[in-house]
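Case 332 in the screening queue. Each case pairs one protein sequence with one candidate compound; here the compound is uridine-5'-diphosphate. For every case the pipeline is the same: read the inputs, emit a complex structure as tokens, and attach any notable structural observations.

Predict complex for case 332.
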Amino acid sequence: MKALITGGAGFIGSHLAEKLLSRGDEVHIIDDLSTGTIANIQHLKSSPLFHYHIDTITNQRLMTELVDLCDITYHLAAAVGVRLIVESPVRTMETNIRGTEIVLALAERKRKRVLITSTSEVYGKREHIPFREDDDLIMGPTSKGRWSYACSKAIDEFLAIAYWKEKKVPTVIVRLFNTVGPRQTGRYGMVIPNLVTQALTGEDMTVFGDGLQARCFTHVSDSVNSIVQIAAHPNANGEVYNIGTQEEITILDLARRIKLLTDSDSKIVFVPYEKAYEEGFEDMMRRVPDLTKAHKLIGYRPRVALDETLRSIIEDIRLRLLYQRTPEPIST
Ligand code: UDP
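Case 332 output:
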């Protein structure tokens, strides 16, 4: 099997590449290193099955070659991270929508399979827990940058479903809920790498808002394993699947847990949202996936519990700090 991963030098993309290589696939990645890094794929470069292209997915000539060459495209290239999205809404929408259009249009020529990674952000301000794939999506106003990300990913989903329904391109969508793990960076605002880096370097641990907002954090191995299985399933075309865990924790408890596991003297401090992001920033209080659909399709169950996930991230960031490869925690 030959696979193309867009955004393959990113956090999730590099884990997916590793997984596909380990089962003997030939893997081609394309990444413009806007948020991905060479360090993420350094250990894969020696494999004869691994090929990387540092380029943008808007390079139509290269993308035509790669999509034609491969049996499947895993489309992960996207603007990610709430901080990046709030700061660069134009780049967010252009990258997400144009990138997906290009991938789908090229896949159509030879009816190649495409898996699109989406996000639990598309549920927007929905409060009724757990979120099911066919639930209504509740967006905020267009004046608030965060919703442009949610809407751009929702458009990606509409596009992928339309290409299946209208043009018979075999597409499938996976909505990922807070995927975390080794190699994730805190540079774009993700909470766990930020808090762990702060705890390990003795800086204040920044909890935004009152810390009572909760999330379910999914280990990247659970996300990647399910992506591969869903992509290969013959009955998944044109469908959307939630992937995540139902183990919920408030951000304040998360900070306390990380402080304990790292044996840190850092202080936990509260930072108002308007200082952390922008005036009028809206956060979601809870975000829990209904996993019935993925369970029915592939028997999906998350395998890695939160404490084990946190330990793997702490170990990774400890090592990166030692080799000075980790970015600075965000300043607020
Ligand atoms: N958050 C926080 N401190 C940080 C970074 C994030 O308290 O240093 C909060 C953030 O406001 C959100 C939660 O942690 O409520 C998860 O943030 P993340 O950006 O990781 O994911 P998302 O907001 O997409 O769920």
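Case 332 observations:
- Residues 2-177+219-244+288-302 form a domain with the Rossmann fold fold (CATH 3.40.50.720).
- The mean pLDDT is 94.
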